[in-house]
Write a structure and sequence with these properties.
With about 550 residues, this protein is of the alpha+beta class. About 35% of the residues lie in helices and about 15% in strands. A six-stranded antiparallel sheet has the order 7-8-9-1-11-16. A five-stranded mixed sheet has the order 3-19-20-21-6, with helices on one face. The chain has a two-stranded antiparallel ribbon with strand order 2-10. Strand 17 and strand 18 form a beta hairpin. It is globular.
Amino acid sequence: MSSETNSFEATENTRPADTANVAADTRPADNANMADPASARVIGTETEFGVIDAANPGANPVVLSAQAVETYAAAIANGEIVRWDYSGEDPLNDARGYRLERASAHPSMLTDDPYRLAPSGGVEYEERPGEYERFMQRATSVVLPNGGRFYVDHAHPEYSSPETTDPLTAVLYDRAGDRLAVHAMREARADGLDLVLYKNNTDGKGASYGTHENYQVPREVDFDDLVRVLIPFFVTRPIICGSGRVGLGQRGERAGFQISQRADFVENEVGLETTFNRPIINTRDEPHAFRDKYRRLHVINGDANQFDVSTYLRVGTTSLVLRALEGELDLSWEGLALDQDPVKTAWLVSHDVDMRMKIDLKSGRSVTAIELQRMFLELVRENVELTEADQRLVSTWERVLHGLENDLASVASDVEWVGKYLLFERQRERLQSTWDDPRLAAMDLQWADLRPEKSLVAALDRAGRVTRLFDQQAVEDAVHNPPAGTRAHIRGLAISIIPQVVKASWTSIVVDQPEHLVRIPLPEPGDEGSAAALQAIEAADADQLIRLFT
């Protein structure tokens, strides 16, 4: 799984494109998409796509992933491809107060560049790679015009969204990744490769790949408080945002339908790992921000969603619970802790499509997953000063919980697992078969297929059976343009406008100068020099940009 996530600081507001075809309780009011400074939180998502060659199903997925990234990068490059700068990556630092020794780390965790230390700040210089080194470099990690990143992560192509400052914009730029995947498949086909990308979390044969979320959190928030409160929240959260799955168990060895794609692959409560022994709470402490001020909560147990409202609830409710945690905690939060094994509970919640199973709490109560989510909702209402945008999010949360409890069909266009379950259940009845029917497993894969002509979600969308928060044009615009309000804005513009920019990271860009490469720190919006930096970028003046930071 990826460690290269989003640059986690923001000071200005973000406004996504106008929305269309939105349920009334979700539709933003005029100017409501602008994140309130008091409630703004940097949010980013990461999606690892399943990958095959339709003409050669046995093709090496690592090679296919590299071909997907390289082909797309070449298609969008305006001159030289802008590669990722690994300086500053730090995937082995643990939020529990220690650092995992590199020699002890599983190879899948070594996603940084072992030959470079993190930059100390300010302008830095490095030698330009030689001709042979440049020839041998492959574009397996490229920076995008929207400020995000497309790259090979182990055996998958992965999209990291640019940093955003509110849940709605996070939804938009997550969907931009799906659209980018469609473009990548078309470019590959034009090159003679019948590439297929899937937005799911398991191949059905025991392999799992991640859909991660990232949230800026003040470092003053006690990490033990995060663990204690978020475990019961994450265990039950899939009922409002799971994407559904045919088969129970990591290999689908038992017949059935479950709520979450990811739940059966959770194996631990708390830990640093992401590709094995996967925890409910990940402890990677890599903030991509001022370390003494922020941490980045790296969430690895969420599902890959194609339904907008599911993504909106996934990132939006988590952001609200975090805001409540950043206030004064009272004993009511203690009563939400589970009085049973959280890992097994995560499995059981996912398998319980009727959502009637009782969960034992430390308070002595036994509640359903719906009731526990409602308890979190009420505690958010009691402990958070909600903006108008927050009120709409809470209203959607409440409406969905009511629908899950009383009328599943009423939320079938909003909650992805519900839409999938009702469709597949009708098909199962029509076929007069059981859940171990291979035709249903094939439908599950077709659900995740991102080819518009093959995708079941695309077919439902065309039929008006998926609630959309953004129209197709807004999504297409987000593929090519960065959001405002974070360093993504400067990063995206810089790589699009200044031809001398050859590398970038969440915190800096690298400019090619006659004698050496120059690494320039990216200012936050509102920081001293940010306005001047934007002016220099818009004027394509690399020399002026360098002078600003020397």
